[in-house]
UniProtKB/TrEMBL annotation:
<dbReference type="InterPro" id="IPR023151">
    <property type="entry name" value="PEP_util_CS"/>
</dbReference>
<dbReference type="InterPro" id="IPR040442">
    <property type="entry name" value="Pyrv_kinase-like_dom_sf"/>
</dbReference>
<keyword id="KW-0808">Transferase</keyword>
<keyword id="KW-0479">Metal-binding</keyword>
<dbReference type="Pfam" id="PF02896">
    <property type="entry name" value="PEP-utilizers_C"/>
</dbReference>
<dbReference type="InterPro" id="IPR000032">
    <property type="entry name" value="HPr-like"/>
</dbReference>
<dbReference type="GO" id="GO:0005737">
    <property type="term" value="C:cytoplasm"/>
</dbReference>
<keyword id="KW-0963">Cytoplasm</keyword>
<dbReference type="InterPro" id="IPR000121">
    <property type="entry name" value="PEP_util_C"/>
</dbReference>
<keyword id="KW-0418">Kinase</keyword>
<dbReference type="InterPro" id="IPR036618">
    <property type="entry name" value="PtsI_HPr-bd_sf"/>
</dbReference>
<dbReference type="Pfam" id="PF00391">
    <property type="entry name" value="PEP-utilizers"/>
</dbReference>
<feature type="domain" description="HPr">
    <location>
        <begin position="177"/>
        <end position="270"/>
    </location>
</feature>
<keyword id="KW-0762">Sugar transport</keyword>
<feature type="domain" description="PTS EIIA type-4">
    <location>
        <begin position="17"/>
        <end position="147"/>
    </location>
</feature>
<dbReference type="Pfam" id="PF00381">
    <property type="entry name" value="PTS-HPr"/>
</dbReference>
<dbReference type="InterPro" id="IPR012844">
    <property type="entry name" value="DhaM_N"/>
</dbReference>
Length: 867
């Protein structure tokens, strides 16, 4: 512990922990100060916030009873410090003392310190184990730091805090001594956050430590007194001297100097570490520099930097330098239309790839890109620019830059991060126009991708066999590129600041910790060894999970539950089987009908379905008939443009309106059924009439195959997708007509809340874990099981770790998901008992919202060992 012996010896003999109660007329103010204080001390102090009135007509005020209850809630034998804002809060604090038991009252201190500054100072002192008197004294002196910094330089009283400090070693006898001069590089200087980290680290040593600001001459100041440290006015670029005397003097000076020298790029850092996670102060890593960013995707990785650059779309740097030339309007618009067709084709292929590899939820990212390319306002603005004489490139660049800027200026962080998606779309269009060639980047083994920001399309195309980590100078954890990184299990740190791009050159060795937001540039030998071991351990755990996934899925009490795969193409089956899929829960057949000018004929379809059936053998293969329309067009069908295609002519509605076209697919499936266990799944069913109509077409198709002398099976099991509230309401009747149900929670959730999941403005309403959705799933399962029908679920919800326990408890028979998610899902199911899952599910049905459900699941799963 630092500080002069006469000040601290009796205060730190035992490890102490003083609690703090904040009392304000406004509960919002009290909570905000609490959050600010907790951020400074990384949650190392116990703080309660109280305030406000329950009277809706007079919300400001204080309640002595509430204050007393808050004191009791955080009471510690080491003491409680109460800080108040003004007026009646002081009276409420004093009255609250009288409401406490006498033995507790003696350990509570009402403090006269300033509310905000006092809370910051008290929290830091409490976090390093100072006694109640010392914590109170620091809070009461907190305003002096601000006064000292704001006084004119020639005012001698500006040194009133630092001049009180005795000489280093004066109280420490003739112990060891050490000192070091170090340049402050943190953009915030040694202000609240960095100063708090400095004080907390200094408190770990048996030494008296002082700091002097050599640039201004302020100091020395005791390193265990936050107010005095702040009063030194240490800013970025200032040279400071750290001096220590005592048993740990050399170690203390060495580590504190390193922290000051490496404590860079903290701006933009958002601490999302979970309770108990190591803070930056406790880091064992070392290297040429330590950069702190925002944790974005957990995991540790070490490798070589591969620097990616994104196309520059600034209005200040037009692509076409011939800005004075008036281009031919018709020719430029024709060029743009050709580029739009090319970009759409690329996106459709990318959507299919992402859907089959990562799942429907991730594919939505690029479906939204596709929708923007078809947005009438977006295209109208480009057309206007072209009519004004701009080239197709200039018009695209202008409009994309303007749209991206609109998103950057929006109030929500998530909206701001979507500006990158706009730029990604613009880059794709400009590339299709021939404005630039895409960057050719060679990915090394164990590559760590470094970028200013990562475009979603760049992330989707990464080879996750080579890329072991991602770090960006800007961006956020909810950027679409980072969502994809999490899907791939790639550790990521974002928003690390511009220094990242200066230090991380191509080939630079980096170590990153995605859970803490730490980037180590040119790590030393011990750090390299630590990260390499962690990386190997994680890879071994993943490999073990994949090996274990080959076994049949059983709960902890031995109940078999089927985990199946969603496939976007037949070629994905190998990956699904490697992941441990026990069946194919959904084969999307759109891949056969899209990206071509003519539809596939019956025999082409039959060959592909037969290939899959042979590979799977006796294992079930659920084939969904073509789900064309909405976001999945087929040019040769000439489907009309609709104001809202998701509520229009799509899926089974299109199939039934084109019976000959539909029968070709039904006949192909009947032919393939002789090779394996084919099931037919009908999408977007809303009424019983639709099912009856399909059954009639199946009978007709079987008659046609029989007449042709073909080998076929007519008794294929037929199921329907439950994707609409209408199907949920009629589930008991539909169950009498079909052999199974498959719940499509992506669309069911969308239609339940009347919220387009690709629309950022209403995306907050889209919540599959909301009880409104869970209750519908429960109703469907009960209706199906009553008539001995099995039920699968093929939406993204099936792979959600927080949804799996609830779905298991509701009685779901089959979980179908992207292959990459199967091992983890099997592991979660294997850790659960049916009795626990059933209790959890019933509680979830009684919750009021999705967040309450998530909190319930997290709390239930706390004691369950799930990797």
């Amino acid at each position: 512990m630092t500080g002069s012996k006469d000040e601290t010896e009796d205060e730190t003999e035992d490890e102490t922990l003083v609690s703090i109660v904040l009392v304000s007329h406004s509960i919002e103010l009290s909570l905000a100060v609490k959050a600010l204080a907790e951020q400074q001390v990384q949650g190392r102090a116990v703080i309660a916030a109280v305030g406000g009135s329950e009277n809706p007509f007079q919300p400001f005020g204080t309640d002595p009873v509430a204050v007393a209850e808050a004191i009791d809630a955080v009471y510690s034998d080491d003491g409680v410090l109460v800080l108040m804002d003004l007026g009646s809060a002081v009276i409420s604090g004093q009255v609250a003392l009288d409401l406490l038991r006498p033995e507790r009252r003696a350990r509570v201190r009402i403090c006269s310190g300033p509310f905000v500054e006092g809370a910051m100072a008290a929290a830091v002192q409490a976090s390093i184990g100072m006694a109640l008197d010392a914590v109170a004294r620091e809070a009461e002196e907190a305003m002096q730091a601000k006064i000292a910094v704001l006084r004119p330089a020639d005012d001698s009283s500006s040194q009133l805090l630092s001049l009180e400090v005795p000489g280093v070693g004066e109280a420490a006898g003739t112990g060891r001594r050490a000192s070091a001069d170090v340049l402050v590089v943190n953009p915030a200087g040694l202000h609240f956050g960095p100063a708090a980290r400095f004080v907390q680290l200094a408190a770990q040593f048996q030494a008296e430590i002082c700091v002097t600001n050599l640039t201004t001459g302020a100091g020395p100041a005791l390193a265990n007194r936050l107010n005095r440290l702040l009063a030194l006015g240490i800013e970025k670029g200032h040279l400071i001297r750290i001096e220590a005397s005592g048993e740990d003097a050399e170690t203390a000076v060495d580590l504190l100097a390193r922290q000051v020298a490496h404590d860079v790029a903290r701006y933009g850092y958002v601490d999302s570490a979970q309770p108990g996670s190591p803070s930056p102060l406790e880091t064992e890593e070392n290297g040429a520099a330590l950069l702190w960013g925002q944790p974005a995707s957990p995991g540790m990785a070490i490798g070589s930097a591969v620097v990616l650059t994104a196309p520059h779309l600034s209005l200040d740097a037009p692509l076409d330098r011939r800005s004075t030339v008036h281009f031919n309007t018709q020719q430029e618009w024709a060029r743009l239309e050709a580029a739009l067709r090319s970009a759409r084709s690329q996106l459709e292929a990318l959507i299919a790839r992402v859907r089959s590899t990562f799942g429907e939820e991730q594919a939505l990212i690029f479906q939204a890109h596709l929708l923007l390319l078809e947005d009438q306002d977006f295209l109208a603005e480009i057309r206007t620019a072209i009519h004004g004489g701009a080239s197709a490139e200039q018009a695209t660049q202008l409009v994309v830059s303007q749209w991206a800027q609109r998103f950057r200026l929006m109030s929500g962080v998530i909206f701001q991060q979507r500006s990158v998606d706009i730029e990604d779309i613009g880059s794709r269009l400009l590339q299709a126009l021939g404005a630039y060639e895409p960057q050719a980047t060679e990915l090394l083994e164990r590559a760590i991708v470094v970028a200013e920001t990562l475009l979603p399309s760049q992330a989707a195309m990464l080879d996750h066999q080579r890329v072991v980590g991602i770090c960006t100078a800007s961006g956020g954890a909810m950027a679409h590129a980072i969502i994809l990184a999490r899907s791939m299990g790639i550790p990521a740190v974002v928003n690390a600041g511009p220094l990242l791009l200066e230090l991380a050159q191509p080939g630079t060795q980096l170590a990153i910790d995605g859970a803490r937001g730490l980037i180590v540039v040119e790590p030393d030998a011990s750090t390299q060894e630590m990260y390499a071991a962690a990386q190997l351990e994680a890879a071994s755990a993943r490999a073990a999970a994949w090996v274990q996934a080959q076994q049949r899925t059983r709960t902890a009490d031995g109940i078999h539950v089927e985990v199946a795969a969603n496939l976007g193409t037949v070629d994905d089956v190998k990956r699904a089987l490697e992941a441990g899929a026990e069946a194919i829960g959904l084969l999307r057949t759109e891949f056969l009908f899209q990206d071509r000018q003519t539809p596939p004929d019956e025999m082409e379809q039959a060959e592909l379905y037969s290939k899959l059936a042979r590979i799977m053998g006796d294992r079930r293969v659920v084939v969904r008939t073509f789900d064309i329309g909405g976001d999945k067009p087929a040019p040769y069908l000439h489907l009309p443009a609709e104001a809202n295609p998701f509520l229009g002519w799509r899926a089974i509605r299109v199939s039934l309106s084109m019976p000959e076209f539909f029968k070709a697919q039904l006949r192909a499936l009947m032919r393939a059924a002789v090779e394996g266990n084919i099931h037919i799944l009908l999408p977007m069913v809303s009424t019983m009439d639709e099912v009856l109509h399909v059954q009639a077409l199946l009978a007709t198709a079987a008659g046609e195959l029989k007449a042709a002398g073909a080998a076929f099976r007519a008794d294929l099991p037929v199921g329907v997708m439950i994707e609409t509230p209408a199907a949920v309401e009629m589930a008991d009747r539909l169950a009498g007509l079909v052999d199974f149900f498959s719940i499509g929670t992506n669309d069911l959730t969308q239609y339940t809340f009347a919220a387009d999941r690709t629309n950022e403005r209403v995306a907050n309403l889209y919540d599959p874990l909301h009880p409104a959705v869970l209750r519908q799933i429960d109703r469907v399962l009960r209706a199906a099981h009553f008539q001995k029908r099995w039920v699968g679920l093929c939406g993204e919800m099936a792979a959600d770790p927080l949804a799996i326990p609830i779905l298991l408890g509701l009685g779901l028979d089959e979980f179908s998901m992207a292959p990459v998610s199967i091992p983890a899902a099997k592991q979660i199911i294997g850790r659960l008992t049916m009795s626990l899952a059933r209790r959890l599910a019933q509680k979830a049905l009684q919750m009021n919202d999705g967040d309450s459900v998530r909190n319930l699941v997290r709390k239930t799963m706390e004691g369950i060992d799930v990797a």
